[in-house]
Automatic annotation (TrEMBL), chain A:
Keywords: Amino-acid transport, Cell membrane, Membrane, Transmembrane, Transmembrane helix, Transport. CDD domains: TM_PBP2. It comes from the Bacteria. SUPFAM superfamilies: MetI-like. The chain crosses the membrane at residues 20-42, 54-77. Part of the binding-protein-dependent transport system for glutamine; probably responsible for the translocation of the substrate across the membrane. Belongs to the binding-protein-dependent transport system permease family. HisMQ subfamily. Pfam families: BPD_transp_1 (PF00528). GO terms for cellular component: ATP-binding cassette (ABC) transporter complex. The keyword Magnesium does not apply. It is a multi-pass membrane protein. Residues 18-206 form the ABC transmembrane type-1 domain. This is Putative glutamine transport system permease protein GlnP.
Length: 219, 247
């Protein structure tokens, strides 16, 4: 097949797949950060029962393969009457997985803020929650950015695993084109390039966020 | 003069280790009390018990009629009325000086941003730092940061101020600018409890001096008595004073 013909056949399908990949990554990222924050707060605040429960959740998510988690949610849950479409099942699995890692990064960031900052906030009459929100969390976020970014870049690549539950993201889209064109090498390399581009633009975003946080935190 | 802070038989343990033993003392309204003693003697721990940054297991502390150890006490409200200045300043590094001064006024006292800013600027002016209002803490020297920290505490209109070794982390040439602000405060009648090794400050400004050793209050007497007849002091206090006053 001609190069031009190959690109013409592959590009629209693969770009559409890449769009799904991006969608999965961004949605799981936003939901994962929210959930990760809640989990980190429950653990740092040592909320009885709940903090043990979420510690168990974090351990389970970090201790089992994402692929198994996806299978449990998509093929396993229907056994107890919970049937999810492939897209929500994929988003759910990715969110639960990434939130566990993000919560650990955030917890590390919160622990990295010195006790004196807590004392100062509390001594002014701020409540525990106000001190967390206005004093500790902004500094913790800054400390966590490099480690958060690691998890989020992994997330972009991990989205390829949801191809196993028939979601036509970049990986499955590529496979489909290969099934028609029998050109695995250039097409898989093309898919790799697209993943790389997405990760690289995310890295640039990370650098900008870091610089911005740095400006507002001159020591 | 009535007791603004009264500390009665306070004991505290970290696990099996006792850090405070039956501490009893008080600070009257308008009084300046200096707490000194060797490191590890429990003086910082005691002062942090006063605004409940450190819990204690036995005894009671009453601040302006409110029991600090009572679980029903509204601690944020109590703390908002007692200013505290720390050894390492503890300004909020992600907030500008103006925001450092305003945040608790707005979030705790419910003042408007404008009101809080104006009050903050007035206090910054008072500690001689009005020109630095827009900067971040990291752009100031240690002495300047500590003066901002004092202004931040004063912005809450406290009924008393606690100082926890406010000059220990400062370069020698910056100590006086902080002590000057504290001296001025004392002369205006602020009730102050100061953990410090600055015996010159104690001599000039304090009404009373407390000497602590191994978690207990060993001496608690008028400044004149403390610095007067050294032979009337306890063995431990004599040793401490002879070391610290030689210089």
């Amino acid at each position: 097949m001609e190069w031009a013909g190959l690109i013409e056949a592959a590009l629209p399908v693969m770009l559409k797949g890449a769009l799904y990949t991006l969608l999965f990554a961004v949605v799981a990222m936003v939901l994962g950060l929210l959930l990760g924050f809640v989990v980190a707060l429950l653990r740092v605040g040592k909320v009885p029962v709940l903090s043990q429960l979420v510690a168990f959740y974090v351990s389970a998510m970090r201790g089992t393969p994402l692929l198994v988690q996806i299978f449990v949610i998509y093929y396993g849950l229907p056994g107890i009457g919970i049937e999810l479409e492939p897209v929500p099942a994929g988003v759910l699995a990715l969110t639960l997985n990434v939130a566990a890692y993000l919560s650990e990064s955030l917890r590390g960031g919160i622990a990295g803020v010195e006790r004196g900052q807590w004392d100062a906030g509390l001594s002014l009459g701020l409540s525990w929650w106000q001190t967390m929100r206005y004093i500790v969390a902004p500094q913790a976020l800054r400390l966590s950015v490099p480690s958060l970014s690691n998890s989020l870049i992994s997330l972009i690549k991990d989205t390829s695993l949801v191809s196993v539950i028939t979601v036509t993201e970049l990986m499955l889209a590529t496979k489909e084109v290969i099934a028609q064109t029998f050109q695995p090498l250039p097409l898989y390399l093309g898919a790799a390039a697209l993943y790389w581009m997405m990760s690289a633009s995310f890295e640039r975003l990370q650098k900008r966020v870091e610089r911005k946080l740095e400006l507002a935190h001159q020591r | 003069m009535s007791a603004m802070i009264s500390i009665n038989n306070v004991s505290k343990w970290y696990g099996d280790f006792q850090v405070l033993t039956d501490c009893t003392t008080g600070v009257k309204k308008g009084e300046v009390v200096v707490v000194c003693g060797p490191s590890g003697s429990g003086k910082s721990t005691l002062i942090k018990c006063v605004n409940a940054l450190e819990p204690f297991q036995k005894g009671e502390i009453i601040v302006d009629g409110i029991a600090v150890g009572d679980p029903k006490t509204d601690l944020p409200k109590l703390r908002s009325r007692v200013g505290m200045v720390f050894q390492h300043f503890e300004l909020f590094p992600h907030l500008s000086i103006t925001e450092n001064l305003a945040i608790a006024q707005v979030k705790v006292l419910g003042r408007s941003q404008d009101e809080a800013r104006e009050k903050g600027l007035k206090l910054l002016d008072r500690v001689g730092l009005k020109a630095h209002a827009h900067k971040f803490p990291g752009q100031l020297s240690g002495g300047q940061q500590q003066r901002v920290a004092i202004a931040r505490a004063l912005a809450m209109d406290p009924i008393a101020m606690l100082f926890d070794e406010p000059t220990s982390a400062l370069d020698p040439e910056m100590i006086n600018e902080v002590l000057d602000v504290m001296t001025e405060l004392a002369q205006e009648g602020m009730t102050m409890m100061c953990v410090t090794h600055e015996m010159g400050f104690a001599r000039r400004v304090a009404h009373r001096v407390i000497f602590m050793d191994k978690g207990a209050i060993v001496e608690d007497c008028d400044k004149d008595a403390f610095f007067g007849d050294i032979n009337a002091r306890s063995e431990r206090a004599r040793q401490f004073l002879s070391k610290i006053l030689q210089h």
